[in-house]
Design brief:
This protein is α/β, with parallel strands linked by helices. It has helices at residues 35-48, 60-72, 85-93, 109-122, 137-143, 148-164, 179-189, 207-223, 238-251, 274-285, 303-306, 338-348; strands at 8-11, 14-17, 23-27, 52-56, 77-80, 98-101, 126-131, 170-175, 198-199, 229-231, 260-263, 293-297, 312-316, 320-325, 328-334. Helices cover 41% and strands 20% of the residues. The strands form three sheets. An eight-stranded parallel sheet has the order 8-7-6-5-4-3-10-9. It has a five-stranded mixed sheet with strand order 11-12-13-14-15. The protein has a two-stranded antiparallel ribbon with strand order 1-2. The protein binds iron/sulfur cluster.
Length: 351
């Protein structure tokens, strides 16, 4: 897949843009000034595969906590700032590896300039984040509502303002919870900037609806070669965001991310509790970092053939099942030994 050309931006010890892999990020939902809870959550997110983490900085206490949090985690820390430019200054002084602001809600040009000067002094990137919910009135009037064109104009105006202040170490995000609008905005924005893009569908929703919305939206955007870092935004445990982001990137062929489990939809031929079996396999392989496709199929007659593109698989029958490799049956086993046998094959598998 051809990727949109962008500059490279360093965030802590990670790079985004250019030919660097698309990094996965999330945001904590603890109180940032509760250092223990925040660190505990970030460590769980790291374990799940999170590569950049953002914390909100609503007050002085949160800004001060960044320094302690950063010393106890292993991924770059981004400070999320709204309205108060002093929090941006404090976050940078306390070690933020990047800040996210919407210059539109930071206040006067002088205040934005102070934030930009501070970021420049510490040489950290600024993410200019524009959301459909906070689009300026003149742009709403100009385009007859909240539109992709308005979002792009808003983002580019702000980027130009910061560039005019003498700083170009920027990342841009334009987000909407409306999938076609968000996709269109990225199509319009990408050819007009060389700054890396942080992409995501904002306020996507709860686990099921949010995942579907994110997969649909990010699928369109990423498949067009656009995006250098992604966040799947879900209402729930942020670890779920990481799992989903990894799956979206893997399914689009953009990152290798562990074992992919495929399973058949079941039908009248199914003679095994396939739902439970597929869930067990998914849990079992979740920590295994091998680029493998594993199939869990509901019948021994069609299963191995239907899943011949899988590296390994099991097909359940009445009381017994088959273990297969690229469609070829390698063993027939009693049902209760299928999982253990599959696990052994996965462990021994050499690509
Ligand atoms: Fe039905 Fe077997 Fe195909 Fe699953 S693999 S959908 S059980 S025919």
């Amino acid at each position: 897949m051809l990727r949109n050309e962008t500059e490279v931006v360093r965030i802590g010890d990670r790079m985004i843009g250019g030919d660097y892999p698309i990094l996965i990020q999330s945001m904590t939902n603890t109180k940032t000034d509760d250092v223990s809870a925040t660190v505990e959550q970030i460590l769980r997110l790291e374990e799940a595969g999170c590569e950049i983490i953002r914390c909100t900085v609503p007050d002085e206490e949160a800004a001060k906590a960044l320094d302690q949090i950063r010393s106890r985690i292993h991924i770059p820390l981004v400070a999320d700032i709204h309205f108060d430019y002093r929090m941006a200054l404090a976050a940078i002084e306390n070690g933020a590896d990047k800040i996210r602001i919407n210059p539109g809600n930071i206040g006067s040009r002088e205040r934005v300039q102070m934030v930009v000067d501070k970021a420049a002094a510490y040489n950290i990137p600024i993410r200019v984040g524009v959301n459909s919910g906070s689009l300026e009135k003149p742009l709403i009037e100009k385009y007859g509502g909240v539109t992709a064109e308005g979002l792009v104009e808003s983002a580019l105006d702000k980027v130009r303002m910061i560039e005019d202040m003498g700083y170009g170490n920027l990342v841009i995000s334009i987000k909407s919870s409306n999938v076609p609008m968000c996709a269109r905005a990225h199509e319009l924005l990408a050819p007009r900037t060389r700054h890396p893009l942080h992409v995501g569908i904002t306020e996507a929703g709860t686990i099921t609806s949010g995942n579907i919305k994110s997969a649909a939206g990010l699928g369109i955007i990423l498949y067009a070669g656009i995006g250098n870092t992604i966040r799947v935004s879900l209402t729930g445990d942020p670890v779920e965001e990481i799992k989903s982001a990894k799956m979206i990137l893997r399914d689009l062929g953009l990152r290798r991310a562990g074992v992919e489990v495929i399973s058949c939809p079941t039908c009248g031929r199914t003679n095994i509790d396939l739902v439970s079996l597929a869930n067990q396999v998914e849990t079992m392989v979740s920590g295994i970092d091998k680029p493998l496709k594993v199939a869990v199929m509901g019948c021994v007659v069609n299963g191995p053939g239907e899943a011949r593109e899988a590296d390994l698989g099991i097909a359940g029958g009445r009381g017994e099942g088959l273990l297969f490799c690229k469609g070829q049956i390698i063993r027939k086993l009693p049902e209760d030994q299928l999982l253990a046998a599959l696990m052994e094959e996965i462990r021994n598998y050499q690509a």
